């Protein structure tokens, strides 16, 4: 997968679609709050717990957000290769999710992560000191 879902692909059905209609668990909500505050490493810890405890297919939502957050963390640490690696991993999970899942605007997160990935891929240098961190957008919740 290339990090942008084919628009002709229908959204998932079955267990994932059912779980996507469930409310976002409190731990995941707190992790997203940390993500949106730029606390990318701390969000990882909470989402990893949520991901490990979840047995249903919605766990891919938590894994995707977690990996985008770690990619953003790598950018703040001036680690271009680490960020690209995590964004490529995240694309795998973002691509299989519907556009909205548990109130998370997955479509927007997918597009934001892809934009960051493309910019990192176009850079001639591994030095990220000049990277525009305004591109590290928050996870949007649709209430």
CATH class, anyone?
Mainly Alpha
Low-pLDDT stretches are 1-12
CATH superfamily: TTHA0068-like
Task: Name the shape in a single word.
Answer: globular
Mean pLDDT: 89
Second rung of CATH, namely the architecture: Orthogonal Bundle
Q: Strand portion, in percent?
A: under 5%
Count of helical stretches: 6
Q: Span between N and C termini?
A: 29 Å
Oligomeric category: single chain
Instruction: State the helicity in percent bands.
Output: 55-70%
Overall tally of domains: 1
Main beta-sheet strand count, sense and barrel state: 2 strands, antiparallel
* Rounded Rg: 14 Å
Helix and strand succession? HHHHHEEH
Structure characterization notes:
The protein is mainly α. It has a two-stranded antiparallel sheet with strand order 1-2. The chain has a single domain, classed as Hyaluronidase domain-like (Orthogonal Bundle), CATH 1.10.3450.10. It is globular and about 45 Å long. Helix 4 packs antiparallel against helix 5. Helices cover 57% and strands 3% of the residues. The chain contains six helices and two strands; from the N terminus they run αααααββα. Mean pLDDT is 89; it is low at 1-12.
Brief summary of the model shown:
With 143 residues, this protein is an all-alpha fold. The chain is built from six helices and two strands, in the order αααααββα.
List the helices and strands and how they pair.
Layout: H1 15-20, H2 26-36, H3 40-53, H4 59-76, H5 80-94, E1 100-101, E2 104-105, H6 106-122
Helix pairs in contact: 2-3, 3-4, 4-5, 5-6
């Amino acid at each position: 997968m290339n990090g942008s879902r084919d628009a002709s692909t229908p959204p998932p059905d079955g267990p994932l679609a059912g779980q996507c209609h469930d409310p976002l668990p409190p731990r995941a909500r707190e992790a997203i709050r940390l993500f949106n505050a730029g606390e990318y490493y701390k969000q990882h810890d909470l989402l990893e717990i949520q991901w490990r405890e979840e047995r249903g297919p919605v766990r891919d939502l938590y894994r995707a957000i977690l990996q985008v957050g770690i990619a953003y963390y790598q950018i703040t640490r001036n680690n271009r290769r680490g960020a690209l690696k995590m964004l490529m991993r995240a694309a795998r999970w973002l691509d299989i999710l519907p556009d909205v899942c548990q109130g998370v605007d997955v479509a927007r997160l997918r597009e934001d992560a892809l934009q960051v990935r493309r910019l990192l891929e176009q850079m001639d240098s591994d030095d990220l000191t000049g990277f525009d961190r305004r591109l590290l957008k928050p996870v949007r919740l649709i209430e």
